[in-house]
Task: inverse folding
């Protein structure tokens, strides 16, 4: 038995999978921001009380990113090389909005007086120019402790080339103050660019205490339920890591909850043979866009995270991450009016409590969910499979109030709210696709998240997309996706060298070394030797260029012949991406990257029972009036998704309900159920045979 | 639909930007992002842009006009790429800023121009690099190309390329950068064509026209919000020539702004006549600077197009430092002009304390380092701007960033720099006591110290606003500390604002010091706890706390001595106030 749990801003979702039968069961509970572990345990207890037969739990958590977003970082000290304590404050001194005369830079996460410089210097080749002054270092550590810091981060210049001084500092700190938390830059990444590395090291330290407390208490509770194995945590890169490592390297989990969805889509893409998919994950709070192109999700080597103190630009995080774009748009997003009388929706959300007005928990703001209730799109009685009763009168009250301000009818205003939120979401998808020269119309829109299937057709209409796939158990798809993830560790070593005369012995020994540490980590986490695989990548550029292109290479030792083959593949890639290349020019290796993967057994998708085009009689639920802009309120049949059979065809207008989600089929759309139970929505008349 | 087209066009330009950024050779393009890309229509209207440096904004429309004048639109063909850098014909800034323009054809008709302007390293000239402090004629500043065809019908024009190659000290890097630029304008053109195809030519250009009108309407509304009146002020530029041999001194930058309903007129009459030395700014770049300042005042968060600038009128006296005549040298065009936007902000907010901001350090503070890398035996040139302090805001202290005109420029990571160049960075940080005192303090200036490794390096530095007009304070705030460069020899030190081709030997240090920003409001009104925090963090010294802010602190605990502070600050401004 395997369990995946995903925390969202509003709900916590779990999926339990029986590996033998392939059956899976979802559960959904409210998130518990005061202690997320409570929600996680609630979601598991809804599935089973006894975890003794569970062999595997994986978890996407927001705990790390939330302590950053909410500014709950521990008091920290930072030790830098002499002359460089301001790297963290100066950043790159750029302004992402060049025209803003009042631009604000990211505020440093460690104040200047707690950033201390130590005498030492290593050059870019890793040679020690000035040995570390250990006596001074001890003094600095004591001074920081005297300021009551709870953790110390260390980022020395050129430590990517030689971490010897960082390691000495680590030893000194542990010796002086064993209880103090530690974050050492070379332990997180061996890539050059001191500001980005320092920022990553500091963020890692800042969120370490929250993460480690949370994981420890969660582990204890899971043990109390009888669980006897490792707890795995999702990382930003789409792989899992053991909770032990997550406690000391929590910065790898910043995008933890975004990974499940995209891995789920990757899996569907492979199984269904559909290479290009856009994931549209709409939950209670946020809308996340994921892209799968040619069956693969894209990973980027670093990203920036926006927080209330990060000014216009965001804090850089130098860890590989799946490329996901998020905006504040969900069922709980609030509709509000600006000074000029313009209507907006989000990005702020009512969260799990009090939530939308219809929850009856005291929410007094009109939300997207309330608009859906007013339009008859959501079942006014049950949410979460009857576990949560709604108060439709409350939705009418808040929407009605807003409608009167605009001299509009309730349904017109509610419909306007949904149009705005769909437009916001379409914008996010355009940003992800058009920015790369991709046409969204060439993709299938994959709808998931509790609110995704409710808005998918309207969103697709907005983008000109003609094919939508609604996954099984959409509200729990991310949690399901996590069950498909491998254990995965990324390593990097910057090592700038000409490609045609590279010191191959050095290059190969770096690879072997990185792979060895990765292998050890995987074995520690319980991965079997025969499940381990690895990918080697060289970041290559023309000598003199600044930016690089990753070139995947084989696992065998790099030879001279291999180098010239790599060179020509680089030329081809450069030509493909940038429409020009210079095959005669010298090339340079900048960094080596290794991805170590521990494969997990992936259960196959279950097929559902085949039936005719007419939905089974017993799938029909009581119909209701549903509002569409083109028709006004019309009678719409309602179906129970669980009773539909493969081959069932439903023409809009219709509503398909299931435990964690509701799919809306507008008048011009048609749904066909595929053999795995996915709802394939197409614009009527353009359906495939 | 209009919004859709506008956003898609901005994305076209973004793609051009990414293409260049990712494939360029010079760090000044890939890391410091010293360039702009834009799409223009056949009436030379700016349709969309994406910028590292928005001050190239107006140059591109002027460049397109020059292409028409010199080559003629009727002589352009699909696949042509135009190249120019002549400060008086098509380039309109200094020689190292090159412009690449691709005409975009749709169904056989010329419909758009995809244009790129960026800073390259070395196109000839008396010393390596591209700009100098001591030139007196544009002929000394490098080879000049008026608009010429770099590509003809898709094929490289080898004649021109041979001339370019022959005139650069770094031909590989230069041609690499030019390849990246050509690729960018082609990408921009292709993407724009796809958009026209998607929406249909008529609908597309209908949207473009509407977008300009919408922008114009919003900009006019923003001008209307500025109280009518005549606002006037000035600052000084240090002038041209090396400090060791000045060519001109104390140049007047005089500005009068007239706001009349939805019109705003910027008049530079009264500014110095064109001067001996290279501190002269060609008219199109002056216009760009003013447009930049105008946009920051009116529509900072909207995509740029020609419509944004229609409420703006500009008057520039001929043969002045802001409209020099051929063959006046223009190498340091930025020195008198980069603070025009800052001055505009100061003038129009002179009666609006909640919209004001103090002045910033006021110069690009550019340096380049060059020599022969002892590790490879190859010649290298490294160019960069230097960050400095920005003015305090009505609600918080100033930032430390690159110069206003530099836009979204990134500093070069020390670790990247040390791999690429035979130079060691000894320290990089904030300079205490450089921010102008005020209720809100100006942003601190910086120091960045270099030492050559195993060779003698040469350097040219241009740090204007060292002698005159440090960053101004507003509403009672004080000036910031000025820009300067210090060279530390074994037994002596030298201080410069401008020096060309100076030797720095192994073991010696060149210390670049970007100045501080101006303060906002009376420093005696600064919260004493904020002053104590500044002392704790060594943003200011204990002495400065007392001298500038009238705040007396216990030297060890940094507790505010309320009594002495009240006595120093005088009635009504004491520590008890907050």
Result:
């Amino acid at each position: 038995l395997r369990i995946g749990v995903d925390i969202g801003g509003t709900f916590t979702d779990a999926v339990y999978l029986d590996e033998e039968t392939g059956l899976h069961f979802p559960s959904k509970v409210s998130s518990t921001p005061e202690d997320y572990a409570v929600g996680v345990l609630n979601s598991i207890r809804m599935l089973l009380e006894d975890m003794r037969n569970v062999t595997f739990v994986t978890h996407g958590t927001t705990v790390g990113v939330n302590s950053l977003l909410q500014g709950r970082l521990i008091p920290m000290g930072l030790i830098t090389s002499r002359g460089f304590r301001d790297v963290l404050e100066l950043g790159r001194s750029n302004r992402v909005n060049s025209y803003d005369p009042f631009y604000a830079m990211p505020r440093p996460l460690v104040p200047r007086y707690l950033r201390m410089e130590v005498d030492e210097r290593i050059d870019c080749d890793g040679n020690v120019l000035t040995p570390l002054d250990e006596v001074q270092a001890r003094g600095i550590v004591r001074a920081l402790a005297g300021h009551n810091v709870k953790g110390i981060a260390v980022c020395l210049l050129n430590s990517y080339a030689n971490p010897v001084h960082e390691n000495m500092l680590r030893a000194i700190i542990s010796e002086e103050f064993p209880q103090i938390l530690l974050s050492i830059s070379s332990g997180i990444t061996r890539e050059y660019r001191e500001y980005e590395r320092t920022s990553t090291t500091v963020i890692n330290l800042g969120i370490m205490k929250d993460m480690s407390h949370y994981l420890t208490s969660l582990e204890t509770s899971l043990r109390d339920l009888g669980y006897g194995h490792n707890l795995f945590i999702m990382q930003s890169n789409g792989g899992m890591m053991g909770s032990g490592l997550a406690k000391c390297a929590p910065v790898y989990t910043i995008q933890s909850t975004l990974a499940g969805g995209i891995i789920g889509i990757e899996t569907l893409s492979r199984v269904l043979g559909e290479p290009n998919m856009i994931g549209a994950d709409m939950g209670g709070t946020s809308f996340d866009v994921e892209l799968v192109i040619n069956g693969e999700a894209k990973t980027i080597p670093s990203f920036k995270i926006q927080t209330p103190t990060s000014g216009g630009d965001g804090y850089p995080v130098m860890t590989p991450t799946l490329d996901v774009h998020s905006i504040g748009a969900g069922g709980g997003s609030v509709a509000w009016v600006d000074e000029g009388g313009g209507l907006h929706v989000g990005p702020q959300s009512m969260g799990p409590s009090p939530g939308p007005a219809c929850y009856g928990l005291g929410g007094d703001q009109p939300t997207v969910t309330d608009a859906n209730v007013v339009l008859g799109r959501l079942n006014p009685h049950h949410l979460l499979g009857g576990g949560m009763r709604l108060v439709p009168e409350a939705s009418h009250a808040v929407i009605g109030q807003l409608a009167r301000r605009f001299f509009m009818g309730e349904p017109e205003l509610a419909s306007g709210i949904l149009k705005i939120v769909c437009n916001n979401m379409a914008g996010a998808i355009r940003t992800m696709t058009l920015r790369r020269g991709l046409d969204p119309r060439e993709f299938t829109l994959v709808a998931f998240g509790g609110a995704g299937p409710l808005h998918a057709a309207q969103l697709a209409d907005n983008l000109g997309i003609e094919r939508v796939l609604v996954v099984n158990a959409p509200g729990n798809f991310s949690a399901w996706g996590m069950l498909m993830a491998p254990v995965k560790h990324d390593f990097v070593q910057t090592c700038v060298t000409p490609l045609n005369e590279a010191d191959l012995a050095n290059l190969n020994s770096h690879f072997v070394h990185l792979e060895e540490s990765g292998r050890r980590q995987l074995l520690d986490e319980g991965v079997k030797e025969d499940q381990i695989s690895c990918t080697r990548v060289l970041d290559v550029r023309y000598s003199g260029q600044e930016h690089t292109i990753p070139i995947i290479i084989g696992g065998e030792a790099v030879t001279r012949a291999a180098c010239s083959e790599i060179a020509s593949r680089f030329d081809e890639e450069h030509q493909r991406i940038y429409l020009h290349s210079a095959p005669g020019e010298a090339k340079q290796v900048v960094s080596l990257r290794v991805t170590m993967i521990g494969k997990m057994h992936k259960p196959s998708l279950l097929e559902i029972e085949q039936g005719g085009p007419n939905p089974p009689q017993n799938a029909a639920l009581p119909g209701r009036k549903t509002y569409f802009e083109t028709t006004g309120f019309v009678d719409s049949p309602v179906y129970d998704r669980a009773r539909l059979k493969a081959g069932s065809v439903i023409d809009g207008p219709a509503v398909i309900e299931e435990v964690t989600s509701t799919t809306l089929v507008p008048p011009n759309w048609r749904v066909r159920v595929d053999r795995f139970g996915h709802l394939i929505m197409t614009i009527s008349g353009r359906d495939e045979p | 639909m209009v919004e859709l087209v506008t956003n898609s066009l901005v994305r076209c330009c973004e793609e051009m930007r990414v293409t260049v950024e990712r494939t360029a050779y010079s760090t000044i393009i890939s890391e410091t992002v010293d360039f702009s890309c834009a799409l223009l229509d056949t009436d030379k209207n700016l349709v969309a842009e994406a910028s590292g440096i928005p001050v190239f904004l107006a140059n591109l429309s002027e460049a397109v006009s020059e292409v028409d004048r010199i080559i003629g639109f009727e002589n352009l063909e699909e696949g042509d790429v135009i190249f120019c850098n002549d400060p008086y014909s098509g380039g309109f800034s200094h020689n190292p800023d090159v412009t690449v323009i691709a005409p975009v054809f749709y169904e056989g008709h010329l419909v758009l121009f995809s244009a790129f302007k960026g800073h390259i390293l070395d196109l000839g000239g008396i010393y390596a690099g591209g700009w100098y402090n001591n030139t007196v004629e544009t002929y000394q500043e490098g080879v000049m190309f008026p608009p010429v065809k770099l590509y003809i019908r898709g094929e490289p024009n080898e004649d021109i390329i041979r001339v370019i190659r022959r005139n650069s000290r770094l031909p590989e890097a230069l041609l690499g950068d030019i390849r990246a630029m050509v690729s960018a304008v082609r990408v921009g053109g292709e993407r724009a064509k796809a958009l026209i195809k998607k929406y249909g030519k008529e609908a597309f250009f209908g949207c473009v026209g509407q977008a300009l009108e919408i922008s114009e309407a919003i900009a006019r509304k923003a001008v209307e919000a500025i109280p009518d009146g005549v606002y006037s002020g000035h600052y000084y530029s240090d002038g041209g020539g090396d400090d060791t041999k000045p060519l001109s001194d104390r140049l007047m930058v005089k500005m009068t702004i007239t706001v009349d309903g939805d019109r705003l007129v910027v008049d530079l009459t009264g500014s110095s006549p064109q001067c001996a030395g290279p501190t002269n700014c060609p008219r199109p770049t002056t216009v760009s600077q003013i447009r930049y300042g105008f946009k920051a005042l009116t529509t900072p968060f909207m995509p740029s197009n020609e419509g944004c600038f229609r409420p703006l009128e500009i008057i520039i006296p001929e043969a002045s430092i802001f409209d020099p005549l051929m063959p006046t040298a223009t190498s340091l065009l930025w020195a008198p002009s980069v603070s025009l936007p800052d001055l505009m902000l100061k003038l129009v907010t002179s009666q609006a304390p909640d919209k004001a901001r103090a002045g910033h350090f006021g110069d690009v503070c550019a340096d380049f380092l060059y020599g022969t890398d002892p590790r490879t035996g190859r010649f290298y040139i490294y160019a960069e701007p230097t960050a400095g302090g920005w003015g305090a805001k009505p609600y918080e202290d100033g930032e430390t960033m690159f110069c206003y005109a530099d836009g979204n420029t990134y500093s070069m990571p020390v670790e990247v720099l040390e791999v690429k160049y035979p130079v060691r960075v000894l320290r990089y940080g904030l300079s205490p006591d450089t921010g102008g005192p005020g209720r809100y303090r100006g942003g601190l200036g910086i120091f960045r110290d270099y030492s050559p490794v195993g060779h003698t390096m040469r350097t040219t530095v241009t740090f204007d606003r060292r002698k005159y007009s440090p960053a101004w304070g507003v509403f009672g705030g004080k000036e910031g500390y000025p820009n300067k460069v210090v060279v530390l020899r074994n037994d002596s030190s030298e201080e410069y604002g401008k020096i060309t081709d100076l030797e720095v030997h192994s073991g010696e240090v060149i210390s670049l010091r970007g100045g501080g920003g101006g303060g906002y409001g009376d420093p005696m009104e600064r919260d004493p706890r904020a002053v104590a925090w500044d002392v704790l963090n060594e943003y200011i010294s204990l002495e400065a706390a007392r001298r500038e802010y009238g705040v007396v602190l216990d030297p060890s605990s940094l507790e505010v001595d309320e009594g002495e502070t009240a006595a120093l600050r005088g009635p009504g401004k004491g520590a008890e106030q907050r």
